[in-house]
């Protein structure tokens, strides 16, 4: 074949050329079959080189282009776009990775690295010789976004999308919107309460015609793909209609014989099986919790509108993108961890925050007046031994703010802060300064020498080797110990499991790239935001929620999407439907179909990711991958194995 | 200056072409809006394009930024003005902003310059290179830096002697000393302020000897020494060109310090110091690196793990505030510090000191509106009117803030805040 190939070999400003002799690589390929020009460049991705490439392609009519540079993860799309701009089909571009796979991997062997780079470029040349122009698949995108999770992130994203003109389904599993924020009293820095903030957002959402609000709603199945997700949502009825309210409702609630811990107050109080929203939770109606209701009918007797016979509903939702905003759980300390579970006077920060709100005149816990509080930081975070290596980011500021609130509200309280080094980053530092001025006492220990909580019959004692006073042992006998618990991913991973969302080392959902694609996941069209992605405060959650909103919006806005044409293809003659490929496919892209009288496999192009896992499992070799055909791969292997002596040693 | 005032209109004006402004411009343009991006400097890319690698992933900053800036500069929906400044903004009504912009002459015809660098070769004037943070020199006819966008020469007219050598050397004859300042009136429906931050000037703490002791550097200077486009191709002490082997980091320089009027924690300097320390251990395997800190604030995703990694590599951490630095005859530096663990004042000798300078507000945006409509917070960052529920909103409806213009932030947070600003701007335009 008569190809006109351009090869560009990148220095990467030294990242490559410090170890690979790029000039030698160029010389080694410049006379290869089909190569029309070969050049080295300081930064292939730089604007100037991109311009030069466009000119080269146009002026010389190049029909194949290779850039040997960093990982295709970073720049495959960049150079495909260059080809396209120059009028060359972007699938006639082939990427060769000589940084991650060569210069960085073999920084101890420059000669060997150069040899390997030559082979990799030669195999790319072999591939581009066989490359065919391809057209991306185009298919319609449903202009609607489904949001899983109605906490602050989900609500704010819904509002953002709605305002941009995109229909939204906001799907909340619990009976109320507001998530964790509704559980918090006065918020740093606005001074509003969490409830007020949620209430404002909810009020705005109610005004929007293009927002569908669903509570008690659980996504039970999800299929389809970017542009066309099909969700089945189970909606649990409330059983209590709006016209059952006021005194009648109160009487019904009083009549309910079932009492259980109220999770909203972190079990500090109790609620009935029929219960209403707390201030800050929406909608402002009551609901019956059927998992604990005994159907005794007491409430119905007082309020006949209550209808225990209401049935759950399954609704179908069709959306072009799914935004996951399922939030976090506060870490639950293990039994005995800093005395937790050994004394009821050892509580967590979220419990403490509820306690401040629930008390009025003085701070009373379990019937006892509290004046001296020990705050133990980083519980469930920064664990030297446990799984949670990460810092939970919000908690230093949050506990300092709560301690200040408690002091303001109840006056006679002193806090002893057992820290690992305060992390009130940014402007939050002022809060720390305020707390110090207010007479709070700060102590600090290192990771490997945490404070110890002694639980005695009538007292508590906290000991620390305080590094702020030259590693002296200091002990305090507090009335209450508050464990400053961090954030962990929600125990309920149903949405994550449904879409097979990948998680990071910290077990939170993982984005593709923190800087390049910070709210996208590897599942196209599924966007993440808020604390389900990692610990965040409210401002940070809202920033990520609105970033997610604009991302989802840009996917569905035009009503049409383009997809990679690199997919598996089935040779209908050869396939005998044994199901091996169906078993192997991680994306459920393969199904059985009937062609004439024969059963064969069929690929769903909009789901297939072109990963190629089905190829080797096929016993009759009936599957090929577009752009990675056996012919192409074999020619690459030949180039790797045949054209050059194997690796010179040092 | 010519009196002609050119008029143009766009959907959105983005002020500042750093990572935050760039992201916001791309978000808007990718959704079909026409954007004008006004950048004061000669290149877009902000501080990020000049960094070495970025925490916590240690991606090469240039490798992430160059494709972004190139996408911005060739996006059909984005017009970029470099060397341009906003002189005033007036809000005429909702979705009606009128902004006066002046574009300084570059004395080079942008479209014709091929970046051949022949003008650089012949120019006889050498001055400090601000893009290498003064570590080396550049010419008065110069290309700002190798990955600048646009990668086009400029004449530094203040230092130019008008000898005409560059004019003669330039093959496409694109050097034009008759260029004048251009004035524009730009009409847009919304404005995004992404003017970034300023670095603390360590001359304000004379006890650290910056500017007097040659081997006391700022972190940005070290960032340049570690970057792929680095000036020396290795790490050198500016004083005598020796490779350092005992390097100290002084954290919180100009942050968390009431005595210099900045009580705020800059929130990036712990992390970039951990990063630089790790890169130094790679570049100079025999060197010792010591970090003097108050608290290590590694709070973000993957940050604490990054800190652990630094400890694992053998970087030393000393909890204590450095009080004073003095120089020895050999150019080495003696740090006098309060060692918290030992509970006493101690001294230690190093051969190079890096000051982890903090983030200060860029106050430019505060003068954009004639009557102070755009409010500042108590530190002179752009005030976030609804910091919790709509962090991008400012005191002026329709004007949004992205990135470090509203306070210290790292790159991931700047990018997310830019997403929020563009989302709000689209919503506002659609109202
Ligand atoms: C030494 C050092 C190392 C760092 N390392 C890292 C790291 O490893 N990882 C990380 O996440 N972060 C790091 N950072 C932080 C990072 O630099 C910032 O988070 C990021 O640059 C903020 O982007 P920005 O767009 O908000 O501001 P900037 O980068 O400051 O960009 C602002 C832009 O606006 C322009 N501008 C200013 N005023 C005007 C005006 N009046 N009109 C028009 N244009 C104007 C400026 O010229 C500039 O181009 C580091 C910072 C420093 C100092
Ligand atoms: S924010 Fe503070 S309390 Fe929370 S994990 Fe980090 S250091 Fe510990
Ligand atoms: S980030 Fe670290 S070095 Fe920077 S001001 Fe805060 S505590 Fe100091």
Descriptive notes:
The complex is a heterodimer of chains A (650) and B (431). Chain A has 650 residues and is of the alpha/beta class. Chain A has five domains: 5-134, 3-Layer(aba) Sandwich (Rossmann fold); 145-236 and 312-327 and 490-556, 3-Layer(bba) Sandwich (FAD/NAD(P)-binding domain), CATH 3.50.50; 246-302, Alpha-Beta Plaits (2-Layer Sandwich); 331-488, FAD/NAD(P)-binding domain (3-Layer(bba) Sandwich), CATH 3.50.50.60; 564-626, Alpha-Beta Plaits. Helix content of chain A is 28%, strand content 24%. Chain A is built from 17 helices and 34 strands. In chain A, the strands form twelve sheets. Chain A has a five-stranded parallel β-sheet. Chain A has a five-stranded parallel β-sheet with strand order 18-27-21-22-23. In chain A, α6 links the parallel β6 (145-148) and β7. The longest helix of chain A is centred in the N-terminal third of the chain and has 21 residues, at 110-130. The two termini of chain A are 38 Å apart. Chain B has 431 residues and is an alpha/beta fold. Chain B has three domains: 5-104 and 181-196 and 362-430, FAD/NAD(P)-binding domain (3-Layer(bba) Sandwich); 110-169, no CATH class; 200-359, FAD/NAD(P)-binding domain. Chain B is 21% helix and 27% strand. Chain B has helices at 19-30, 61-74, 118-122, 165-169, 219-226, 269-283, 303-312, 411-430; strands at residues 5-9, 12-15, 35-38, 53-54, 59-60, 78-81, 84-93, 96-103, 126-128, 137-139, 141-142, 154-155, 182-188, 190-193, 197-199, 216-218, 246-253, 288-293, 316-319, 322-327, 333-339, 344-350, 352-357, 359-361, 399-401. In chain B, the strands form eight sheets. In chain B, strands 6-3-2-14-25 form a five-stranded parallel β-sheet. Chain B has a five-stranded parallel β-sheet with strand order 16-23-17-18-19. In chain B, α1 (19-30) packs across α2, α1 packs parallel to α8 and α6 packs parallel to α7 (303-312). Bound molecules: flavin-adenine dinucleotide and iron/sulfur cluster (2 copies). The site of one iron/sulfur cluster has 14 residues of chain B, from β17 and α6.
């Amino acid at each position: 074949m008569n190809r006109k190939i351009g090869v560009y070999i990148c220095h990467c400003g030294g990242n490559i050329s410090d170890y690979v002799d790029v000039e030698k690589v160029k010389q080694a390929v410049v006379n290869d079959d089909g190569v029309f020009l070969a050049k080295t460049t300081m930064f292939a991705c730089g604007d100037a080189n991109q311009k030069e490439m466009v000119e080269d392609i146009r002026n010389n009519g190049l029909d194949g282009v290779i850039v040997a540079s960093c990982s295709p993860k970073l720049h495959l799309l960049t150079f495909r776009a260059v080809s396209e701009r120059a009028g060359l089909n972007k699938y006639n571009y082939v990427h060769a990775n000589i940084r991650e796979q060569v210069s960085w991997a073999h920084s101890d062997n420059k000669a060997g690295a150069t040899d390997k780079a030559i082979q990799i470029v030669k195999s790319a040349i072999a591939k581009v010789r066989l490359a065919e122009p391809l057209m991306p698949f185009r298919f319609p995108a449903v202009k609607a976004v489904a949001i899983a999770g109605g906490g602050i992130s989900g609500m704010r994203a819904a509002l953002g999308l709605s305002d941009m003109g995109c229909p939204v389904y906001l799907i909340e599993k619990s009976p109320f919107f507001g998530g964790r924020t509704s559980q918090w009293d006065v918020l740093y820095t606005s001074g509003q309460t969490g409830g007020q903030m949620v209430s404002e957002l909810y009020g705005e959402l109610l005004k929007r015609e293009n927002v569908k609000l669903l509570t008690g709603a659980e996504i039970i199945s999800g299929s389809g793909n970017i542009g066309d997700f099909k969700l089945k949502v189970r909606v649990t009825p409330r059983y209590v209609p709006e016209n059952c309210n006021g005194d009648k409702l109160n009487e019904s609630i009083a009549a309910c014989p079932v009492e259980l811990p109220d999770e909203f107050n972190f079990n500090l109080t109790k609620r009935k099986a029929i219960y209403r929203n707390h201030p800050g939770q929406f909608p402002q109606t009551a609901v019956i919790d059927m998992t604990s209701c005994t159907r005794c009918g007491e409430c119905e007797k007082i309020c006949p509108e209550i209808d225990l016979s209401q049935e759950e509903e399954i609704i179908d939702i069709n959306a072009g993108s799914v935004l996951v905003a399922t939030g976090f759980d506060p870490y639950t300390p293990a039994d005995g961890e800093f005395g937790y579970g050994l004394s009821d006077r050892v509580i967590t920060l979220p419990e403490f925050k509820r306690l401040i709100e629930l008390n009025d005149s003085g701070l009373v816990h379990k019937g006892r007046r509290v004046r001296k509080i020990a705050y133990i930081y980083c519980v469930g975070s920064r664990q030297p031994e446990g799984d949670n290596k990460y810092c939970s980011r919000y908690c230093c500021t949050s506990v300092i703010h709560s301690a200040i609130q408690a002091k303001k509200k109840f006056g006679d309280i002193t806090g002893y802060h057992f820290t690992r080094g305060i992390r009130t980053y940014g402007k939050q530092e002022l809060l720390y300064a305020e707390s110090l001025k207010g007479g709070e006492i700060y102590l600090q220990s290192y990771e490997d020498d945490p404070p110890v909580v002694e639980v005695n019959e009538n007292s508590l004692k906290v000991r620390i080797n305080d590094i702020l006073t030259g590693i002296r042992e200091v002990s305090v006998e507090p009335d209450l110990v508050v464990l400053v618990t961090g954030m962990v991913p929600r125990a309920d991973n149903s949405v994550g499991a449904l879409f097979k969302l990948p998680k990071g080392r910290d077990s939170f959902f993982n984005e593709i790239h923190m800087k390049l694609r910070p709210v996208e996941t590897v599942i196209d069209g599924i966007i993440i935001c808020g604390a389900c992605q990692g610990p965040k405060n409210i401002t940070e959650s809202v920033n990520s929620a609105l970033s997610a909103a604009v991302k989802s919006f840009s996917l569905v806005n035009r009503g049409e999407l383009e997809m990679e044409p690199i997919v598996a293809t089935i040779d209908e003659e050869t396939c005998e439907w044994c199901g091996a490929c169906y078993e192997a496919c991680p994306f459920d892209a393969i199904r059985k179909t009937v062609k004439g009288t024969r059963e064969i496999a069929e690929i769903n192009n909009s789901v297939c990711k072109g990963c190629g896992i089905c190829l080797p499992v096929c016993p009759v070799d009936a599957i090929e991958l577009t752009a990675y055909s056996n012919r192409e791969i074999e020619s690459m292997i030949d180039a790797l194995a045949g054209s050059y002596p194997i690796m010179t040693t040092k | 200056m010519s009196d002609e005032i050119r008029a143009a209109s766009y959907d959105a004006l983005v002020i500042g072409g750093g990572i935050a402004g760039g992201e916001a411009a791309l978000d808007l343009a990718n959704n079909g809006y026409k954007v004008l991006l006004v950048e004061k400097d000669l290149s877009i890319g902000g501080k990020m394009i000049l960094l070495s690698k970025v925490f916590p992933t240690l991606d090469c900053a240039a490798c992430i930024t160059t494709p972004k800036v190139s996408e911005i500069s060739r996006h059909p929906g984005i017009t970029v003005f470099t060397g341009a400044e906003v002189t005033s903004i007036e809000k005429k009504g909702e979705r009606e902003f009128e902004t006066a912009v002046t574009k300084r002459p570059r004395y080079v015809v942008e479209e014709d310059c091929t970046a051949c660098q022949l003008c650089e070769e012949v120019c006889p004037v050498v001055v400090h290179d601000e893009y290498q943070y003064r570590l080396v020199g550049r010419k008065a006819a110069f290309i700002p830096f190798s990955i600048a966008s646009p990668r086009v020469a400029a004449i530094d007219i203040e230092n130019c002697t008008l000898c005409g050598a560059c004019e003669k050397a330039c093959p496409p004859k694109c050097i034009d000393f008759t260029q004048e300042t251009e004035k524009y009136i730009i009409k847009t429906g919304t404005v995004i302020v992404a003017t970034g931050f300023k670095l603390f000037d360590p001359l304000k703490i004379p006890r650290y000897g910056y500017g007097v002791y040659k081997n006391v550097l700022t972190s940005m200077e070290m960032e340049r020494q570690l970057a792929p486009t680095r000036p020396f191709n290795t790490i050198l002490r500016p004083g005598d060109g020796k490779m350092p082997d005992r390097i100290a980091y002084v954290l919180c320089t100009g942050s968390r310090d009431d005595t210099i009027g900045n009580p705020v924690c800059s929130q990036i300097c712990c992390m970039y110091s951990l990063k630089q320390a790790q890169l130094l251990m790679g570049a100079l395997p025999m060197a010792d690196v010591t970090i003097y800190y108050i608290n290590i604030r590694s709070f973000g995703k993957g940050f604490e793990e990054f800190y652990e990694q630094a400890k694992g590599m053998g970087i030393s951490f000393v909890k204590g505030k450095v009080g004073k630095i003095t120089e020895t005859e050999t150019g080495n530096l003696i740090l006098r510090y309060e060692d918290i663990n030992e509970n006493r004042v101690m001294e230690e000798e190093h051969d190079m000191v890096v000051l982890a300078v903090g983030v200060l507000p860029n106050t430019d945006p505060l003068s954009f509106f004639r009557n102070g409509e755009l409010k500042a917070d108590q530190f002179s960052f752009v005030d976030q009117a609804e910091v919790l529920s709509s962090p991008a909103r400012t005191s002026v409806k329709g004007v949004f803030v992205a990135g470090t213009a509203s306070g210290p932030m790292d790159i991931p947070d700047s990018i997310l805040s830019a997403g929020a600003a563009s989302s709000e701007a689209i919503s506002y335009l659609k109202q």
